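Z., the sequence and structure:
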Amino acid sequence: MGRDLPHNTDAEEGVLASILRDTSSDVITACISSKIREDYFFKPAHRIMYSAMLALYNQKREIDEIVLAEYLNSRNALSDVGGVVEISRIAGRIETPAHFQEWLGIIREKYFLRTLIRACYDAIEGAYQNEGGIDYFIEGVEEKILGISQDRVGDTVRKADEPDQVDAAVARINSLIKNKGQMMGVPTGFTQLDELMGGLHPNEMIVIAGRPGTGKTSIALNIAERALFGVNPVPTLIFSLEMLAEQLHQRIIASRARIDQHALSRGMLKKESIADINATAKELKNAPLWIDDTAGISILEMRAKARRLNQQLGGKLGLVVVDYLQLLRGSDPNLPREQEVAEISRGMKAMSKELRAPVIVLAQLNRDSEKETRAPRASDLRESGSIEQDADAILLLSRQRKSASDDEATSNSQWLIRAELAKQRNGPTGVATLLFNRNYTRYENYSLRDDVNI
């Protein structure tokens, strides 16, 4: 053609380096989802490397410089890409894969430009040499251009008559009618909340937010406990960025066995309490519960771990709890914190859709509601308004005081908690009243009775 075709080797190397640097497989998964093939890469050596990476991914093997070099060497293709030195050079071109989507977009753009140029060149040559009917020739050119356009747009637009579209929706509606009044999601264990929400549903991100001391971790553990020890135990994964796994296990055991946390910390327990602890611990050992207590984990690492566990369980992971959102890291530490939290929030929502499971995300509220002595609002969520936007449901916890002088520092062991369902994408909003037993760090259904000293 006389001129170099459009290409950007820097972007190609950026994507290849991102795949090598990414320990979570999110980059190559995104490439596959975007239908990036080896011919999207202009440079032959890059095509060979990318093809090898796809093969390693399909074999469920880790992708790094050493594994890639060994794989290529075993197929006598290492020298074709420039050897180990070239692989190491490419891998060292970036510090973080945070911008791989930008580079991926450049690769796609250059590929489609090259494809379009070739199609137009073929059309010009065909026009000079055409010996058949003009209608057939024009139809052939149109098919080529349409093929490029369809490849560029992709097939995420689905026709309504596909089996998994309308039929799935009708099946769900029929199930709701058949099981009239029955819980369709994962029960929370709290009557008023379950009446409002109908349980926790797949593909949903549920944010539970409150100020420190309102028992966010406690209510999340109580919901997880209900899921684990129900009639049909729900495999549950908890990401604890604040507490160690053994501390969470202790909290769950003491709460379920109704052991006073203060007495437990001093070892002042009765014999019957010890028996209850042993029985509950045995019960917990057999529960389908997984806990990851990695501190400072990133959203990409979290999604990768959840995805891996879900694959091991055959897609049966039924509930994920994250304690808590503001302790997570984004993919790029150089971003402003508000943008970082927005990325984390989007990642949480994407994780719920990917796993087809409800994801409970605990979050902190700012001090505005305390300063203005009012009930908290969804807009009080700290650091990012995108949390409010991404969440399917938002539950705001605050203490119900009997009077303006009722200070939080009171020694009462039981608090009334106002649990406001401030947002629900697929249902009504409303307010539930729960009882927080601080001695047992346990939330319970509340009903007016004489033996409760609040």
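The first strand starts at residue 205 and ends at 210. The chain has two domains: 9-153, 183-445.

Let me know what you think.
H.
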